[in-house]
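User: For my dataset I need records formatted as: sequence, then structure tokens, nothing else. Please produce one.
Assistant:
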Amino acid sequence: MIEIQKLYDYVGRVRQQKKVDIHSIINTTLVSNPYITNFPKDFLFNNFKKESKLKLFIFHSIKFYFFNTIRFIFFIQIVFYYKFLYKKPKHDISKDDLILDLFIDIGRVVKDGSFSENYFSTLYPILKNNKISHVFIPRVVGLSRNPIKLHKQLISFFKIINQDSNYFLFEFELLSFNNFLELIWLCLCYPFKTLRLFSKEKNKQDIVFNIHLLKDISKEGTGSFTRYILGKNIGKIKNISKIYSWSEFQVIERAFNYAIRKNSDIKVYACQFLVNYPVYFNMHVQDIDEFNGSAPHKVLVNGSYYLLEREKVDFQLGVSLRYQNIFDYQSQNIGSNVVLLGSYLIHETKNVLKLVSNIDTVIFKGHPEVGIDVFRDVMGENIKVTNESIYDLFPKAALIIGSATGSLAEAIACGVSVIVVARENELITNPLVDMGKGEMWDIAFNAIEVEQKIKKLLEFRNKNMDEIKIIATWYKDNFFIEPSEENIVKTFELK
């Protein structure tokens, strides 16, 4: 069993000892997102390899400057398109406006032909009923890197946005010439600012940390600095009192929070309305984040299980805006199919597909953000692809298999047994907890274990349906909060 707390303790000590500024706030190694940096895994598993620090610094600094020059040019292009294509009149924000900071996928908007987002969607009918206007602060994602495709994409996107009734506050609206100069300066300084974070090498952990500090230089981009500048500019808008921010507490959110708190009295409420993982280290707000000024003022969580004990960080119950289907689900059917739910992480899904090759028939539902073609090389004849919703699949399923997907927690809450596929000597991206382990869910590391665990879990289910219902209810009650109007109104303080 790996001791996760050791990672938090180590990173916390470094943060406490070093100077606090935007460069340390967004440092990739300190943030420890396991999907961005290998530092958490190498630290916890004591993976150690000596490397030339000078060579690492030179190589990754050059890489950083090269890619961020491209990103800066790309950013200038988008600003140019915004200035010429965005035609909506500027919205004068009032104190009654609800400010929502969230991701907007341009690719999805263009594909749908209309504006949509799936983070706060359950909220909008209630805002309309209560005659409360809202303003979006978009984090624009899904941009094509092909100049021709980008051109078409942006033309279509702004045409759609111009016709939409929602109000938007794009970061491009607030940019000044000095902001561009500041962005350049922040980027130029970043590799050298990283060197200030070095630890004295008293043990292997210090060496692992220092090596990853250098390797991770090239993994940081202009996006964090633009969000920092946006936060400073928003802080100058007098009528904004609070912002509800969709939060996985990644570098862009830390940069935004830091700027807001340093330059204004605006309150930031972090909306963590999603299923969390123990090894999703960056998402767990620590007291040191409050000390350093990058924490939100409140963390609103998806269920009571996620209320963490902190001295300085204010955790409160939120509402599960994206999980109404859990509370509507009534089926008691037990299907005969093995269902595989894909992850956003392609390599995790490929690994699962390889381990189910000996099972007669597997229904495969891919992640909505990942095209099915990337899996063709590992899909056997036993794999049957479906586009059905997971809630249509649950009644047909004898058991669900997956890795690194919150849908496994949804399955458990709906009474469906689950196998979490993991890999030896890797962090286990498992959203479930000890409750029900070995009875309603279990972990498998290879194809043999997958078959063994399927047999074991189905035998338990056939003999212990009352216990299955108890476990399912526990997950439903502790991981989720029904998005009723009452709960939404309470969470967003609408009355």
